[in-house]
Amino acid sequence: MDATVFAVDLERASSLAGISYDELVDGIRGDRHSTLQAVVLESEADGDWTGASALAAYVLTSGKTTFYGVPYALQQLQRRTILEHALSQLLLAGITRVVLAVSANQPEVRAHVEQSPVAACLHLEYLELPPSVLESVPETILAGRHLLSGPFLIHAPDRVFDKDVIERFLAFYQTTHSVCMLSETRMDMAQRMHSTTVRVQVASPRANGSTNVRIGRDLASYNGVDAGLYIVSPKIFVVLENLLHGAGALSLPEALAFGFRSLKVMPTTEHCNWFGVDSDDELLHAVEFNLAATLSPFTFPALLSPQKPRKSVLLSVGSSPSSHASETARGAFQGFVVDVPTTRVTATSPLLPRLSLKVHECALATHVTSSPHNELSVSIPLPEVASPTTSSPSKSAFLIQQSTASNFVLAVPDGPMRRRSQLPSDVVDVALEATTGDGAIAVRLTVQKQVPRIGYLILLTALLSVSAQGAALQTLSGISPFLKMFWRAFGSSIVFSILAVISVVHDGWPTLPSPRQALFEAIVCILSYLTYNATFFWALDHTSVGHAYIFSNCHSVLIVFGKCFLGQPVAALESSGAILGALGGALTTMDSDAASSPTSLSRVIEPTLRGDVVALAGAIGGVFYLVNAKVLREKLGVWVFVAYLFTTAWVLILPLLCALGVEFDVSTDPRIGLFGWVHHFGTEVLIVVVCSGLGTMGFISAMRYFPPLVISVTMLLEPIVATLFSLLSGTADVPHALTIVGGLTVILGTLLVVYSTRKSTEHIDVTAAMLSTVPETKQPRNATKRPSYYGTMSQVKS
User: For the chain, which has fewer Cβ within 10 Å, the N-terminal or C-terminal residue?
Assistant: First the structure.
């Protein structure tokens, strides 16, 4: 039974979905999973292949054993095993790259070859397959399709061909430039072969030089039999795939005759030296006549360049890893399997998404077998991944579809244990869905989120903390608002830089998949943050505290309007909240013309239209700051991002002070000194610890659960709290009626937007996370591109 397998890069999928790798895996697992066992093995490496022949050899073995349980491949003749004799003759004929298909149930075969001197002279690649696959030569060849590019030689199992026969066969191929096979025409030798051996009838050449070749097991008239040596082109994979799904079980020679009209047959001659041991009779004949002594003698030449180790994966058969796997595994890991709903594109259904891939570009042809105990065994080739972040097999999932099934299953190896976030996740469930049709496939994730209670607690704490900032700063009378801004940024930079260093030492430096993009986002973020805060500080000295907060934080309305302008979906409650927010802002603006009381204290700042306009202009910077801050928080982490934010802020404020002509000097002067905050240490501690620590960092932490719009509209609640703090500190009068009504209207709009985002469902196209079977990696000239090794997987159905 065949299956189509697609490899999915989980790291890439989590990045596209905007959630962490752990949240993705935990969400997919859910309550519907079955058990998966797997181990990582060391394999031979890709090296620079500089063999004498441009052909690779695909050497097959069988799972057959002698009466004493010894595999035929390990039967010794002349102190060498059958497999060693076969490999050494290939080496003498100039073939140095060999793909060796061995049974996963006979680890001693591979272990023996690895210890043999001939292995050090060959570039060997091992393909471990279930015995059921090795029983069929066509299926075994299909299993190795990703290891073989270009024409290659197929060496049938349990046979030894002398190097002279191989060289003559290679010359025959060079002459005909066609798919070819070797036919044994000595009938005495043919009669000793197994009764099921395929027969060959080659007619005399016609006048035009062509020959008629008939191949079959039941030919009554024949002049040769299949010897087990072939040279084929990559088209063989297409032919075999079509035959296995159509014409039924055919032997390899029959498939060649069916799929290639230009098939050429090379007959043996009297001096062709080869023998087979695929039956006890043939083995006894080889021993009795000492056929191994008639082979071309071989001595091992100088070793080829050492091979680099590379990893392969074995997703082991059975409910637990095999004993052999546990002995040779370099790293064991577990996983799970879940069902994946599948939708097929029809004439009445929507078209596939724009990012859909052609199946042949990403499918890993494989083999599936059912076994007792309700298990499913799948042979899976590991994709070749260029990215160092996704090279581990435990970070790639396998999307598997059986040929007889309509739905997919997803096999997800659990990745290595990671340092999980101290905050709970808001991801409730993650579902994968595949869409197929017209030879293409698209995959999307459905992510369901629900904000946990701690998310609202963090948001409320940040709101209260930041709201105290205005009252605290207005107690610093007679000091330039930009110098206040510098004091806050400098003090916060010292504290958060220390915490960031501790975070990096403990968790490591954050990995940036695209450093240039992250740098651009960081520059935009800090410039927007500086603009947003500079206008806010200026507005505090030119309008009331309530108006400064309302107009500086109206970026929530701008975000909603921006989503509408860009054609992004906006929920009904979001649009309603935006309308109420705009209405509330208009009402408070009408209060700007209200005359101030002549009995007002001099420290009380009345609303002004000029201050309101500047605060509104700062909201534009707030939009860019919030959008980029959420992205950078995920990439850099909270501590590193906040430290970067405040450090770059005070560095950029210095030239701003010079440009605006603000009086300052490098001293501890309490009014104009850059370090004058030492005379206001209590206020500085309050601003750094409460306003920056709990406020700014609280909002940044809340971005884990809320989109920028929610953070933005929550800031609109600050005027009420800020005005209350200012009243308590004596820096504000009781607000006028219009300000109160407008503020309450804004609060209502804010609550609507927050309520609309308490639960969300996102649909993300993650087709881009599917790994191509033909990776675009740069290779040295004359290097041969070869994908990785196969393994087997077990699904234990619960």
Answer: C
